[in-house]
Amino acid sequence: MNMILKTTNLCKSFNGQTAVNNISLNIERNSVYGLLGPNGAGKSTTLKMITGILRPTSGSIEFDGHAWKRSDLNHIGALIEMPPLYENLTAYENLKVRTTILGLTDKRIDEVLQIVRLTETGKKRAGQFSLGMKQRLGIAVALLNNPKLLILDEPTNGLDPIGIEELRELIRSFPAKGITVILSSHILSEVQQTADHIGIIAGGILGYEGKLNANENLEQLFMDVVKSNHREG
């Protein structure tokens, strides 16, 4: 198996409370990995450790065949929580601010706008975008540095069915472009239609990891894992 990311016994505690407990993830290259779990299960905390926002209490992270180091963030794109956008700027200008910081060419702006299908927005400011367009612009920002791994935390939150469908197609297109996606969600149908592999976190524990089969009763599997790892809180 060709893994782009592995975590081994990853733990994170806050003030003596364990939020993430010995999580060992195996993320296959050029696939979509669905990270499932109820709200407060430890999904976001795990992703924040992978993206360097939080430091693990213990355990290790391997990226692209070596121990995770800060410079690996050059190859990881992430959209965790709401996309950080300048509401008074256009899509192009939002990306221009970041290419300037990253030292990238303007050509890359056109490339990512095309990938997320926002080439027609012209002079429209981001503040006037629909929620779905804002999410896609957030993903465009995450794609600027041409990442090998893209992390999307609850990307369909608040989207209407059309926005969800567009985002799903977009996410499915990434592995063919050489981009591995970790998609975190508590919406089972979303992951069922998008992911190749899944991990289910409940109570800070990875209760299940495996390939997603088309005929799998994901709801039953999810409920079983959540019930067996329920923690009093």
UniProtKB/TrEMBL annotation:
One of its GO terms (molecular function) is ATP binding. InterPro entries: AAA+_ATPase, ABC_Gallidermin_ATP-bd, ABC_transporter-like_ATP-bd, ABC_transporter-like_CS, P-loop_NTPase. The keyword ATP-binding applies. SUPFAM superfamilies: P-loop containing nucleoside triphosphate hydrolases. It comes from the Bacteria. Its EC number is 3.6.1.3. Keywords: ATP-binding, Hydrolase, Nucleotide-binding, Transport. Residues 5-228 form the ABC transporter domain. The keyword Translocase does not apply. Signal peptide: none annotated. NCBIfam families: galliderm_ABC. Belongs to the ABC transporter superfamily. This is Adenosinetriphosphatase. The lineage of its organism: Bacteria, Bacillati, Bacillota, Clostridia, Lachnospirales.
